Amino acid sequence: MTVIVVSNRVARAKSDEPIAGGLAAALIPMVKNSGAIWVGSSGQTSDVISRDCFSQIEPLGTGALATVDMPAKHYRGFYEGFANSALWPALHSRPDLIAVGTDDYTSYREINAFMARALLRFSEPDAVYWIQDYHFLTLGAEMRRLQISRPIGFFLHTPWPARTIMHSVPQHRELVLAMLAYDLIGFQTNEDRQNFRDYVRYELGLGVASDTIVSNHGRARLATFPIGISVDV
Fold first, then answer.
1. Comparing 226 with 191, which gets the higher pLDDT?
2. Which three-class secondary structure string do you get for 166-210?
3. CA 142, CA 181: separation in Å to the nearest integer?
4. What whole-number distance in Å separates Cα of residue 76 and Cα of residue 170?
5. Structural domain containing residue 31
6. Residue 134 domain-assigned (yes or no)
7. Is position 230 within any domain?
């Protein structure tokens, strides 16, 4: 089994420095020791996207880091726009901070679709996918459109707010419906998981039995996976 981890950015461990950031602290040891491939943005954009959009694939322990140059036309609207100016405030229960342009949601979907196409490079019979955070809420649905049938899990590194807060996010129904393409959706707390259950039940009219949601995408299971950083006191 090969685990393909996807996040907006990847991190590189420096031998003489502690690992900074929760995502990096959680993923770098896993990639090093398990042979996983961590895929994310190179931090660069390009006006011309070739068939092979990977700018670099480098070893990290027994695993690898694979970075892609993102489409310049859509990356700003995806990252600074919809992800960080609509989703981030809402997920942290600050809808008053939402400021999103008319084309930002289109860019968000385009980048998710772009990443799905990039992941075809790693679409092997033993691959499983682990998608990270709010930048890629719709990535699983885009992968299913490309006939990627292997297991896809998703983990949210932020809270999930009360369902009424999600009303402030443009296209919130489309986003949550797309999330149901994941086989497993992980949250940090039971409260976050319950808020998502409530949204699905009351806003989408879908049943949730034993933390499993049945939709047109198939079955999505909800679970809680607390994550933290151990420190010496």
1. 191
2. HCCCCCHHHHHHHHCCCCEEEECCHHHHHHHHHHHHHHCCCCEEC
3. 9
4. 17
5. 2-224
6. yes
7. no
Task: Measure Cα distances from 114 to 161, 183, 214 in Å.
Answer: 28, 21, 27
pLDDT of residue 17: 42
Give the number of domains in the chain.
1
pLDDT digits (tens, 9 = 90+) for 24-81: 777 888 899 999 999 999 888 988 766 667 778 999 999 999 999 999 999 999 999 9
Please name the residue that has the structure tokens 């992941």: 119
Cα(74)–Cα(77) distance, integer angstroms:
5
Classify residue 191 as exposed, middle or buried by CB count within 10 Å of its CB (0-12, 13-18, 19+): middle
* pTM for the structure as a whole: 0.92
Q: Is residue 233 part of a domain?
A: no
3-state secondary structure of 129: strand
Output the CA–CA distances (angstroms, integers) from residue 38 to 24, 69, 89, 140, 159, in the order listed: 11, 15, 27, 16, 23
Q: What does 3-60 look like in DSSP terms, one character per residue?
A: EEEEEEE-----TTSPPPSHHHHHHHHHHHHH--EEEEEEEEEESS--SS-EEEEEEE
Which two tokens mark 27?
């993923």
Looking up residue 216, the CATH number of its domain turns out to be 3.40.50.2000
Q: What is the pLDDT of residues 88-111, one digit of tens each?
A: 999 999 999 999 988 999 999 999
Q: Is 231 among the domain residues?
A: no
Query: Under 8 Å CB-to-CB from 58, ≥6 apart: which residues?
Result: 64, 65
